[in-house]
Amino acid sequence: MKKWLFFFSFIAIKSISYGQSVTLQYYIDQSLANSPLLKDYRNQILAAKIDSQRIRALYKPQVTGTSNNFYAPVINGYGYDPVVTNNGSYNALLNVDQAFIGRRNLNAQFASIHLQNDSFSNTGRITEQELIRTVTNQYITAYGDLQQLNLNTEINELLKNEDTILRKLTQSNIYRQTDYLTFKVTLQQQQLQLRQLNIQYQTDYSTLNYLCGIYDTAYVTLSPPAITLQDLPDRATSIHFRQYSIDSLKLMNTITVLNYSYRPKVNAYANAGYNSSLLYQSYKNFGTGVGLNLNVPIYDGHQRKLLFEKIKLQENTRANYQDFFIRQYSQQTVQLRRQLRLTEDLINDINEQIKYSETLIKVDGKLMETGDTRISDFVIAINNYLNARNLLAQNNISRMQIINQLNYWNR
User: Fold this and answer.
1) Which residues are 66's β-sheet partners?
2) Is pLDDT at 45 greater than 90 in this prediction?
3) Full-model pTM
């Protein structure tokens, strides 16, 4: 029974070797690099910069070339009235148009793009946090499966070795056949549990690869996740609250752009080229011309007022979402911290129970060497130890998952 004492002293550091050991950070890096959604946000930010350049180009002089050629023949007195058509017209012109827009109006349009860019950037950071939380949670789940698989594998191996010894003791009539059969049933149950744990680990590990966009059929050893509780930032600087501030600024800027759209607009144009009917001194029909357009809004059926009311409703909706989110945030963080404290207290109590279970196993192990205890008592002691160790592993996993949930809010 000495090997049992050695085993229970060092079982916590035993592990199955699946090949190369990988870390949580590797999977996080892979998920961020492979995420099409994050790539989409980055492309939208680049597209917004192009839109800003397009606005600058839109208010620069616009140069176009046009040519219109029309011929209206009169045959045997039939045809369009030459007084109307001049028998045709022919022109080739170079046109230059220049819209005049105030600096503040232009800055308001640039601000729209800038705020849109900020929104894409902030949403991208929130998406990163969500992806990190999801991948970390799945990594912790798979790692917990592996820990339970390691524990049950070691116990299964030692139970198999013990089976040989107990069978000989039973044949020597030191133990009854029914006691040995009780141990045999426990061994078989342990083997079935081991197969189930192996399936569960492979399933959760495959899900981890799926989430990260990794195609890999090889199974590796997961390193212990480096999960530490991080301080939460001030609410004013948090990316989760900043999105509401950006949305508010976007609505305010929409009002500014709308006001500018109802101001008078001036557009100047000039052209030069050839414009002739070919009826009189066509070689002299080269020339130039300039013009000025003025557009003054007078009445639009109260559309402007209706748009302002719509924006006001949007701002009210945004404020409601923000207030609700603040309440949820406060409630969730307080609840998670309470769960973390209770879980850590439970872990301490479980560790105490494991110490008592180990002591009982040592005592039963010595008594079994002399045949002074029943196999069923020893099996019960082993099951109690197993249950305590599994409960400890589950609560350690729960603790890391709670910390992961809290760390989601750390940006």
Assistant:
1) 93
2) no
3) 0.78
